[in-house]
UniProtKB/TrEMBL annotation:
This is Phospholipid-transporting ATPase. It comes from Euplotes crassus. It is a multi-pass membrane protein. Keywords: ATP-binding, Ion transport, Magnesium, Membrane, Metal-binding, Nucleotide-binding, Sodium, Sodium transport, Translocase, Transmembrane, Transmembrane helix, Transport. Belongs to the cation transport ATPase (P-type) (TC 3.A.3) family. Type IV subfamily. ATP binds at residues 481-483, 602, 645, 668, 700, 780-782, 869, 875, 899-900.
Length: 1236
């Protein structure tokens, strides 16, 4: 390691020993560093952000990087070390009243077209070169285009401004300090705390947040209404999860803040990390002060008691308090320094690939214009110099006319500028106007499409950025959120296996309302419900259960059924083996119960037990589990031990003493884990078949098993378990080893199947998008196991797909894993491959170029990529990673929550779903839809056709303008390139506005190459248009057609009319009419589906030109005065016109035929490849079924460390056992079910 890269310093660790540490000195400042051994290299610094308790090495951070915060004093409102903290006011809008005009104009004139036409406006105002009598005629359309764009920007930015104002003006309860006292207002029922606006909240301030309120800043939890300082928060705006997570205050803080009045005199200071974007990481400590003493000059705090702080105490801005009456917290990060704002990118202006390519076409056209202008100017200057006397005599120049007549160079410049103005229509300003109008109308048709209207939400699809319409037809990557986008985040108990019998029917097996249920089935079910205990009668619609099977009711009610005892054991297992916590709350004089479960799957299982008459009512202070049985009786079961579930064990166990005194071990977990722990294989073969059937339906399964142990065996095991709980090293490993000794020799009880409900038609939509050549990336905050389960449910993953998981956390391990995956990929015989990567691994990959490049190469080879446990900022970084790697490919991000806003704004196209997580994603998106399934129509129908039509509009507008203007160039050959126009100046102005405007606009809005049904159901049409819509080659083909058609037509027009003594204006008017007819015939032959309106528009365009010519023929000021009569009486006029029009039409028809043949051959090739692929795939799948076990996604029984009220009570006799407040911050699901 280079000496210049390091700065050594002597600092004191928390243990009080002196060590030398090194910090990398980079442009961002100093970053945390480890104690380094001689063997360690610079690469090891990438792993420094791992929390200290996860590593054996000591984390040493430079003291001047941490911030010091004084609590509850005005002194705490400023950072003594860095000169002040930022305020809590946020601003996401781009403009202010003062900077809007200059800032927006600068953005407008970064577009090549606008700069080009601005130059033309200036030239039109110069008297010596103007061809419009000094009038800037281009200024009007240029101003219109600029004004439309500015208005759109104002509307979009005003929405952001309104959102900012609403956020900043929210009210929060605080203990006011300093200037806040004057602003503070009273709130009913509060004495110590007063209301102030969020914008006024400061660092170090103590706030009181009540249930269902949002946190105004990033805060440290001090206490709550719960005696143990526990609270529940909803973080859907941060990670997209609508389930609850628990937070817990530090014990030492709880000892000092027992009542609200203790806060008034609570003085302490906090040292913590500087603001950063890591949502799940926080490190700091709180130092308690006996009095309000100032910090010492050294920054050291001697003789002060302190307590560590971590992410378990962190309450983040953007999350809200749930199922907790109130909490107290102290602010540590405010405004744009809060984690949610650190994860929020600045809004940016999006342009489509077609618009970017059009800007390039404008540059190419301008270069072409410069070349022919130089040629014409040089030719004119030379000709004028050679034939000077004849020119002076013909043009009546005199020697004293000035420098223009005598100075060759000035004459060249004037001629050059004049030709620039003559050819200014090479770049059609009408293109910009037409596209703005067309895209707006296209967006309205998207909004009006009833096939993508969500009746359940009464929401139409909204196109909020019409300038990206054609981009929808070029998508090659889709980045999708999971929760709320692909899934409904609703778990439902659907099926079960008890003994050798499977119970529960699929949706397709349930009789429809029209058919009705069989009378005997209905009676069985009604009788069963009638026999339930009182709570079930009053709450028949228990949530999270969607079960139907008359056979189960029949077996359960039949006392002679051989399976009855197994059914009762199964239901008792569901009611006992869990860590669900019951919270009772008073509401309107009634006591309501709320189930707090550590996973949504576990909630569904407990509700299922309740549904079938095993009602979990209470877990008392003595760890007795109280169940209300189906007959209304109460039974108590003693909870002895809980062995928690984690992603390594894939199972959980509880040890229960039943009323008879026997001790039972109840275990549930993944089938692959439980099966190898069974005493025998009784009922296992049948169960395995049922599990595979459940998996094919996308259900998540668990196996349930139990065994009975004697008292002596339990006591011996429990003694070892106690020793493992109090071990000082490798505690978790020791507990796992002891658990293995008792989690064995089980008897199979049954299996459960839970449905993580997908959004409507998600699987079919993803399948057809994949067939359209689009790569799917799923970016989620869930665990790897959850993401894989959903991947199978929605057909992102399949059994014939090789999967590679990267979940390493160290740089060296990730590097080795990337090489290993690459080797596995090269040796694999599978055609489809999927990559699953964890968020911690991505963090290292994106921060290291050595890892980033091989990862991008590997990801590009994958059909599917799933990124798990990623933060909002990481989602955006992944999207940007692909954009940087493939800048020519179009990316689309879709999500439904505030945590998805980053990737929505980063992608080329952002699609927001209006859902349970609010409207943030929909507001920030370019297109807002009601459900994921509407993405198919949005892309394959609207996107495909907008792309095809808009690409045609761009090429056609260049073609018709160049055809129109090049005729003047060809006339220059016979006029010494003098710059003389052949068109009448008044008719000239209406070429783009009237004579050629309407057919192309009709085409751009209404033309469909195939029916909407064909486009939506057959993805091959989308593949073709993505590859073939617009390119430089197609643009040059348009230009080639314009050049040769204008040249041939001018030759046919000038030579015959010259021989017949035709005048300049007669020839020019004939050429004008020919051009109008050519360009309208072109659009006529290229339109795919004609209507009476399209034909009328074609005829009307030509008729309007003829009427204009007739009308202006009678005005003496016009150059065409009296010309029309001579033209109409010329036989050459009709012959040449008919001959040339027929020739042009035949050529266009021939070209279209060739293009259509090429397209059909391409589509036929795609169909043959797909057909061959599917035939081979079918054979392969059959082989896979013979040799490979079908994936059975398992449900999660609980999350480790997230049931403190249960686990702590069971382990309280072990004083040195790990407390839950020291556990890693994991997801906590507080899924509630309210009952009488």
């Amino acid at each position: 390691m280079e000496k210049s890269d390091l700065e050594e310093e002597l600092i004191r660790t928390e243990e009080g020993r002196e060590v030398f540490s090194s910090s990398i000195n980079n442009e961002e400042g100093f970053i945390p560093a480890q104690e380094l051994s001689k063997e360690e290299t610079k690469d090891e610094f990438i792993d420094m952000d791992i929390p200290a308790r996860k590593r054996k090495e000591t984390i040493v951070i430079r003291r001047d990087q941490w911030r010091d915060i004084r609590i509850n004093t005005e002194l705490g409102f400023r950072d003594q070390r860095h000169g002040g903290f930022r305020g809590n006011k946020i601003k996401t809008s781009k403009y202010t009243i003062l900077n809007f005009l200059p800032k927006n104009l600068f953005i407008q004139f970064t577009k090549s077209a606008n700069v080009y036409f601005l130059i033309m406006v200036v030239l039109q105002c110069i008297p010596a070169v103007t061809i419009t009598q000094g009038q800037p005629t281009i200024l009007v359309p240029l101003g219109f285009v600029t004004l439309v764009s500015m208005v759109k920007d104002i509307i979009e930015d005003y929405k952001r401004y309104s959102s900012d104002t609403m956020e900043n003006n929210r009210k929060v309860l605080v203990i006011p300090q300093g200037p806040q006292i004057e602003e503070a207002t009273e709130r009913e029922g509060e004495d110590l705390f007063k209301d102030i606006q969020w914008r006024s909240v400061s660092v170090g301030q103590i706030c009181k947040i009540k249930c269902d309120e949002y946190f105004p800043a990033d805060m440290i939890l001090l206490n709550s209404d719960d005696p143990q300082g526990i609270c529940y928060v909803e973080t859907k705006n941060l990670d997209g999860e609508t389930n609850m997570k628990h937070k817990v205050a530090n014990k030492k803080v709880l000892q000092r803040i027992k009542q609200e009045k203790d806060l008034e005199n609570f003085i302490a200071d906090i040292s913590c990390q500087p603001p950063n974007e890591f949502l799940y990481k926080f490190e700091g400590k709180i130092n308690f002060s006996p009095n309000d003493s100032e910090l010492s000059n050294t920054g050291r705090r001697s003789n002060k008691e302190s307590a560590p702080l971590d992410a378990n105490q962190m309450l983040l801005r953007g999350s809200s308090l749930r199922n907790t009456e109130y909490v107290y917290g102290v602010v540590v990060y405010t405004g744009h320094e809060s984690k949610i704002m650190k994860n929020s990118p600045e809004s940016r202006y999006k342009t489509s690939k077609m618009e970017q390519l059009t800007n390039k076409f404008i540059i190419y056209t301008f270069i072409f214009q410069i070349v022919i202008c130089l040629f014409a100017s040089i030719y004119s200057t030379i000709w004028t110099s050679v034939f000077r006397e004849e020119t002076e005599q013909y043009l009546k120049w005199s020697l004293d006319t000035g420098v223009i007549a005598n100075n060759v160079f000035v004459n060249f410049l004037v001629t050059f500028a004049s030709w620039l103005l003559i050819f200014c229509d090479f770049v059609p300003i009408s293109l910009l106007v037409t596209l703005e109008i067309v895209k707006f109308i296209q967006a309205q048709f998207i909004n009006w499409d009833h096939t993508i209207y969500d009746e359940t939400k009464d929401m139409a699809t909204k196109a909020q950025s019409s300038n990206l319409n054609e981009e929808l037809g070029q998508v090659e990557y889709i980045f999708s959120d999971k929760t709320g986008t692909l899934t409904q985040n609703v778990m439902e108990f659907k099926k079960m296996v008890i003994g050798p019998v499977s119970y529960g029917k699929s949706e397709s097996e349930i009789p429809s309302p029209e058919e009705g249920k069989k009378e005997e089935d209905k009676n069985e079910e009604d009788d069963f419900i009638e026999d339930l205990s009182e709570p079930q009668k009053t709450n028949p619609d228990i949530t999270n259960v969607n079960f139907y099977d008359p056979k189960f009711y029949e077996d359960y009610r039949n006392p002679h059924c051989q399976n009855l005892s197994m059914i009762k054991r199964f239901l008792l297992h569901l009611a006992l083996c869990h860590t669900v916590i019951i919270e009772k709350k008073e509401s309107n004089g009634e006591t309501k119960m709320i189930y707090n479960a550590s996973s949504p799957d576990e909630l569904a299982l407990v509700n299922a037990a309740r549904y079938f008459g095993y009602f979990f009512k209470e877990r008392d202070s003595e760890n007795n589990i109280c169940l209300e049985m189906e007959d209304g009786s109460i039974e108590q079961y003693k909870l002895l031990n809980v062995i928690e579930f984690d992603s390594t064990r894939k199972r959980m166990s509880v040890i229960i003493r039943i009323p008879s005194g026997e001790i039972k071990v109840l275990c549930k977990g993944a089938d692959s884990i439980i099966e190898q722990r069974l005493r025998d294989q009784i009922n296992m073969p049948e169960t395995t078949k049922y599990l595979e059937n459940y998996a094919s339906e996308g259900l998540r399964t668990l196996l349930l098993a139990e065994k009975t142990i004697d008292e002596e065996e339990y006591k011996e095991w429990n003694k070892k378990y106690e020793e493992a709980c109090i071990s000082t090293s490798n505690r978790e490993e020791n507990i796992a080893k002891i658990a293995e000794k008792i989690e064995w020799e089980f008897e199979l009880v049954g299996a459960t199947a839970i449905e993580d409900k997908l959004q409507d038609e998600v699987a079919d939509t993803i399948n057809i998008l994949k067939e359209a050549g689009i790569k799917i990336w799923v970016l989620t905050g869930d665990k790897i196991e959850t993401a894989i389960n959903i991947g199978y449910s929605c057909k992102v993953l399949s059994n014939d797909m090789d999967q590679y998981i990267i979940d390493n956390t160290k740089t060296s391990d990730i590097s080795d894993r990337l090489i290993e995956v690459q080797n596995e990929f090269e040796q694999s015989e599978a055609r489809n491959h999927g990559l699953i990567v964890a968020g911690d691994s991505l963090l290292k990959i994106t921060s290291s170029s050595d890892l980033c490049e091989p990862f991008k190469e590997l990801a590009d080879k994958m059909k599917v990529v799933i990124a798990c446990r990623v933060s909002p900022k990481q989602k955006a970084e992944i999207v940007q990673l692909v954009k940087d790697q493939y800048p020519q490919k179009t990316t689309l991000s879709i999500g439904d929550g505030a945590n998805d806003v980053n990737m929505i704004t980063t992608a080329d196209i952002g699609v927001g779903i209006s859902g349970l997580e609010g409207q943030q994603a929909a507001r920030a998106s370019d297109y807002a839809i009601g459900q994921f399934k509407y993405l198919k129509t949005l892309l394959l129908v609207h996107g495909r056709e907008c792309n095809r039509r808009n690409a045609y509009v761009v090429g056609y507008m260049f073609y018709k303008n160049m055809l129109f203007v090049l005729c003047i160039f060809w006339f220059g050959i016979v006029s010494a390139f003098s710059g003389m126009s052949i068109y009448e100046q008044w008719l000239y102005l209406f070429f783009n506005v009237v004579f050629t405007a309407f057919p192309i606009m009709w085409f751009a809005v209404f033309d469909y190459e195939y029916t909407k049904k064909e486009l939506a159901e057959d993805p091959k049409y989308y593949i073709y248009i993505v590859k073939k819509s617009i390119s430089l080659g197609k643009f040059l083909r348009w230009i080639f057609f314009a050049v040769w058609q204008s040249m041939i037509f001018c030759v046919l027009a000038f030579i015959p009319f010259e021989k017949q003594g035709g005048t300049l204006w007669m020839e020019g008017n004939f050429v004008y009419l020919g051009v109008v007819m050519i360009v309208n015939i072109k659009i006529l032959t290229d339109t795919s589906n004609h209507t009476i309106i399209s034909i009328l528009l074609f005829l009307m365009s030509i008729l309007l030109f003829l009427l204009g010519t007739v009308a202006i023929n009678f005005f003496t000021f016009s150059d065409l005065y009296g010309v029309l009569e001579n033209t109409l009486t010329s036989i050459e006029f009709y012959m040449i016109l008919i001959l040339f029009m027929l020739a042009i039409a035949q050529i266009d028809i021939g070209v279209n035929y060739v293009n259509r043949e090429i397209r059909l051959r391409f589509i036929g090739f795609v169909q043959r490849v797909q057909s061959r692929f599917y035939r081979r795939k079918t054979v392969d799948e059959q082989n896979i079924r013979k040799t490979t076990k079908i994936h059975t996604g398992f449900a999660f029984s609980q999350d480790p460390g997230n049931a403190p009220q249960v686990v702590d009570k069971v382990t309280k006799k072990y004083p040195d056992a790990p407390h839950f407040s020291n556990a890693e911050p994991e997801e906590y699901y507080n899924l509630h079910n309210e009952a009488e």
